[in-house]
Amino acid sequence: MSTERRFGTRHVAFGALLGLALSAGPAAAQIQVDAATELRAVHFRQGEGPEIPESALRAATTLRGRGNGATVQGALAWLPFVSKPDPALFDPQELQRDVVRLRRLCADEGFPRARVRYGVTKDEKRNWVNVTLIVDQGAPIIVREVDMAAADTAAALAIPEEERRAWAKLERSLRRLENHPMRRMGLAQLERDVSSWWQERGHPYARTAIRADVDSARSEARISVRVDPGAFARISRIDVEGTRSIEPKDVTRELPFREGDPYSSKRMTQGQREVQSLEMVRLALVDLPADQARDSTALVRVRVTEAQPHLITGALGYGSETGVAADASWAHRNLGGRAHSLTVAAVAQTGWLAIDENPDRRYRGSVTFKEPFFLERRMSLLLSPFVEFRDDVQDRSLQYGADLTPLYQFSPLRSIALTYGISRRDVYEYRYGDFASGDVDLLTRLQQGAQSLLDTLGTGLRKSQLTLTATLGTLDDPALPHRGVLVRPSIQVTTPSSFNSTEYSRLDGSIFGYLPLSHRTTLAVRMAGGRLLPFGKSLPEPGDNPAVRFLQLRDVAFTAGGSNDVRGWSNRLLGPKFPDIRAEQSADTTLLVAQGYVPVGGFQRVTGSIELQFPLPGIGSKWGGNVFLDAGRVWTSDERFTHGIYAGEQERMFYSTGAEIAIRTPVGPIRLGAGYKLNPSIVDLVDSADLLEAVLAGQPIENLPQHKRWRWQIHLAIGSSF
To answer: What is the dihedral of CA 277, 278, 283, 289, to 10 degrees?
Structure first.
């Protein structure tokens, strides 16, 4: 029965359309459509005068064309996350409804006399149409005056003396509406801003009324704002509801207010956020009961929905630099009934199916205990012992230790942490090679033997350091930012001397910026820099080999390159590097072979990136792309640590460009991209085996064959590059 009604309704619509001239011109021919006619694209055109953003026009309409991207989507339908495109059938009734919606939007934007028309063109061969919606805004209603006074016009607003400056600032912000079109959303925001001002200052029942007096003949409006602050109230009681395993006092201690404090809507919101941050809380609501008396007292109600005490999570991923990766964790979120948490986690980066020649293999296990209320409500304490085995381009080693971190959280994107970490790394094999200058050349160093150099560097490396880190910024959406700035500085210093195999200070920092260019197009900028400052036992003594001292600091030296850095280079291989030299036994002969490169790193680093992020039309809202320009430099200006690895060639600034496509998934965006080296070094383009052979033979490397295809770097990763 319902199917017949839908069939009939659709054909009535098409029948009605046959008698309409669907074109912007007065003498245009009639357009004939049927049930299979598709909508190719919807365009917008506006008249003279102030324009309404096209993103707002498109958001107000429901017609969506097939678009050119549908062809691409159909070609990629064999991929696991890509479905076949649905046909975008043309609906004449929906076109008429969109005209009405656009008229309402224009009125809301301050253009009550706007005229909305449409033009339709058809491709008879392909049986699809293109629609152009034409908006003539007309004269806007201009706000000439904003007047604010008490609801009782016979009395003046009583502004506390200490708040007069803040009130004057609010009044100045309201004046910004003057001489602009009268927007409905602007008036609604005006009402919220005035009410919130009073509610943040002890008046929970403040109300604001807005009236617009419109002079249609002059296309002008005068806005009257009438304010009723209501009674000044203090918090009389705090009730906690919904707790089963958490003590109510462990909830109230997270609140930024106590009984007897003046009411503040800002602190209510902050308290809700901080209660919600408890591991054991799934949902928190902090508000005032609607039925309480509107007098000088305020009863605050905290409603809590608890989470399950135990949580098991796991994920499987892939990266071109790490291969197949997996992580799993088990958490007890209410240890001892005090909202403390205990998390046992394991991470494995297997290197299996990695694109890089020398993938990062890491296996890490950790146990983290978190006390949410430590000395102060916004401070938590984390203790995390760990053990990690790694097999990468630097070494094959086992590290174990523990970190102790007091974390102070101002807001979700504003925090500061001081971490004391103590650890020991047992090195089983160093990955090294050195084009040394002076009286020690490559052949001499190789003849020393791996074990002798291993003994020089040390196999048991101890570390004790303090690290101060901070996160400062504001983003509209932390998961997928479109606007905002984020700064992350870090300072690390080893102490005390007797607990460390090396001594240094390490300064590092990064800044991210996001600027929206349209509704879904963003310009993203990233800059980072760092400096390593060795001191004490890390400084070369008279007679020491500076290359050995340099290699002792390789674990904390700076590198660059990779899918989340300068994307034209493989992981950590921008800048100084050397062949990964291995000794192979053949009969009675030991052969030296090179398999790719390992990073040398440097004591200084600067990197930057500018990226244009945009949607891929027609494929779906989860798909996006970007084009980028990256730059980076890694170098060592401290002459006490000369290692002679082609410093002039590999320590300059390098640039790369490229593009990526990405799809959003529950585990983060999956990115497939390609970077192109704009100014590679010779070492970037020659085979490591050829380079080793040339150095051993004393031949210049400039004459070695260069592989132009190595300018390209393909990467596949899970997670945002910014």
So the answer is: -90
Cα distances from 46 to residues 49, 133, 184, in angstroms, run: 9, 9, 20
Tokens, residue 159: 């502004």
**pLDDT in the model for residue 85:** 66
- Mean pLDDT computed over every residue of the chain: 85
Q: Please give the model's pTM, rounded to 2 decimal places.
A: 0.74
Q: Give the residue from 586, 603, 602, 583 showing the smallest Cα distance to 594.
A: 583
Residue numbers in the chain where pLDDT is lower than 50: 1-29, 433-455, 647
In this prediction, residue 435 carries a pLDDT of 32
Q: Which of 426, 457, 440 is nearest to 550 (CA)?
A: 457
Instruction: List alpha helices for 342-479, DSSP H.
Output: 442-447, 450-457
Residue with tokens 């919904």: 242
Helix 184-199 / helix 164-175 crossing angle, nearest 10 deg: 180
| Tally of helices (H runs) and strands (E runs) in the chain | 14, 27
The three-state secondary structure class of 722 is: coil
Number of Cβ within a 10 Å radius of residue 6: 9
> Within 13 Å, how many C-alpha atoms sit on residue 192's CB side?
6
| Residue (of 251, 306, 308, 248) closest to 275 by Cα position | 251
In DSSP terms, which residues pair with 545 in a beta bridge?
Answer: none
pLDDT at 648: 58
Distances (CA, A) of 600 to 476, 578, 635, 711: 39, 7, 10, 20
Please provide the distance, in angstroms rounded to a whole number, between the alpha carbons at the two ends of the chain: 53
Please give the angle made by the CA atoms of 7, 11 and 13, to the nearest 5 degrees: 120
Nearest-angstrom CA–CA distance, 304 and 241: 6
Q: What CA–CA distance (Å, rounded) separates 574 from 634?
A: 7
Give the C-alpha separation, 671 to 86, whole Å. Answer: 24
Q: Indicate the helix (H) or strand (E) that contains 461.
A: strand 460-475
pLDDT the model gives residue 315: 86
Q: What whole-number distance in Å separates Cα of residue 472 and Cα of residue 487?
A: 5
- In terms of residues, how long is the chain? 722
CA distance 30 to 571: 61
- In order of their start, the domains of the chain are 2-136 (3.10.20.310), 142-228 (3.10.20.310), 234-306 (3.10.20.310), 511-722 (2.40.160.50)
496 cis-preceded (ω within 30 degrees of 0): yes
pLDDT, residue 209, reads 93
Give 508-530 as a 3 state SS string: EEEEEEEEECCCCCEEEEEEEEE
Helices (H), 92-215: 92-108, 164-175, 184-199
Place of tokens 């001892």: 336
pLDDT at 82: 61
Q: Determine contact, residues 658/567, Cβ cutoff 8 Å.
A: yes
